[in-house]
Design goal:
It is a single chain. The protein is α/β, with parallel strands linked by helices and 322 residues long. 44% of the residues are buried. α3 packs parallel to α4. The chain is elongated, with a radius of gyration of 23 Å. β3, α4 and β4 form a beta-alpha-beta unit. It has eleven helices and twelve strands.
């Protein structure tokens, strides 16, 4: 082709070149599914998800119940599978309940990545989130320091979630070195943070048991515990919280919560969507391959997004970077 003919053909070839280079489509849809999606933690996660989608120019749908409702989360997952999306990120509140549906999605060719809370027995490809055991160790070491190695502790959790169980295990392991610190109760709040408020109020009012510290393994109980302690004008009680919603940070500033463990939900979803996008455009031969046993696996087993302690000494610096 002569230079003149090439230049004449360029306007015709350019649109084809652009089309060939377009990796994404506006109809390409990814789902992020959780429960209680109105809480600040999940709003941070949604921001990361939406930012990644905007950069990739794909559609992002953040769905799930607006209260802690395990069955409603399962229904949201089932509906997402029917839509046949390019990929699914999901926070697994109840592994036993969601296992079958996660497996159905993967078997249908939809890549599924678990986020923040895992379903390790399912066919999900891998997990993105905090090393929750290490987060528990971090919290346990700070708890022991606050208690000066001695005292009775009450934990608030939801034991069906693997991430919270791992945190509790980490705390217990950290406290093994402190035989004078005793875990006297582990309270299941069953998705209702006000259970923590009522429990602390009862403990402080009745004085049946001497409790020196309260540890919250999930996001919302910390502010409830702090409010109960404040209402009862209790002194010398240690509170270790989880996550960084505005109320928790304000109670740290007031000195009622000693410290909280910060996670990175924004990072989790931003990385998660980009990994799903790669799997959608460059799919492996089989999504349910035994990746953990493959030295040349296309995917990791676990992506640790990190955690850190926030207390009165660094709370203002922490919020300045948000």
């Amino acid at each position: 082709m002569t230079r003149w003919n090439y230049l004449r053909a360029l306007p015709l070839l350019l649109p084809l070149f652009i089309i060939a280079c377009q990796r994404h489509s506006k109809s390409e849809t990814y789902y992020f599914i959780s429960t209680n999606i109105q809480i600040p933690y999940w709003q941070q996660a949604a921001a990361g998800f939406n930012d990644a989608a905007a950069q990739l120019e794909v559609r992002a749908r953040f769905v799930g119940p607006e209260t802690y409702d395990l069955k409603a989360e399962q229904q949201a997952l089932q509906q997402a599978i029917r839509e046949k999306p390019a990929g699914i990120l999901i926070h697994v509140s109840a592994p036993a309940l969601l296992l079958y549906d996660i497996n159905q999605a993967v078997e249908a060719g939809i890549p599924v990545i678990t986020l923040d809370a895992d379903a390790p027995a399912s066919k999900r490809l891998f997990f993105i989130g905090t090393d929750n055991h290490q987060a528990g160790v971090l919290g346990g070491e700070r708890l022991a320091k606050e208690l000066k190695g001695k005292g009775n502790v009450v934990f608030f959790t939801m034991p069906e979630q693997n991430n919270l169980a791992d945190r509790l295990r980490g705390y217990r392991e950290a406290l093994v070195r402190y035989p004078q610190i005793r875990v006297v109760r582990v309270v299941d709040i069953a998705g209702k943070p006000r259970v923590a408020f009522a429990t602390v109020t009862d403990i402080l009012a009745s004085q049946r048991d001497q409790v020196d510290a309260f540890v919250c393994l999930e996001a919302l109980a910390g502010r409830e515990v702090a409010a109960a302690i404040n209402d009862q004008h209790a002194q010398n009680k240690v509170v270790i919280a989880m996550d960084t919603d505005p109320d928790t940070l304000e109670w740290i500033r007031k000195g009622v919560i000693a410290a909280t463990i910060a996670q990175k939900p924004y990072t989790m979803t931003k990385i998660g969507l980009r990994m799903l996008d790669d799997l959608h455009h460059y799919p492996p031969p089989h999504l349910d391959a035994p990746w953990s046993k493959d030295s040349f696996a296309r995917v990791p087993i676990f992506v640790d997004t990190g955690s850190s302690l926030v207390d009165k000494s660094n709370v203002d610096a922490f919020t300045a970077h948000r």
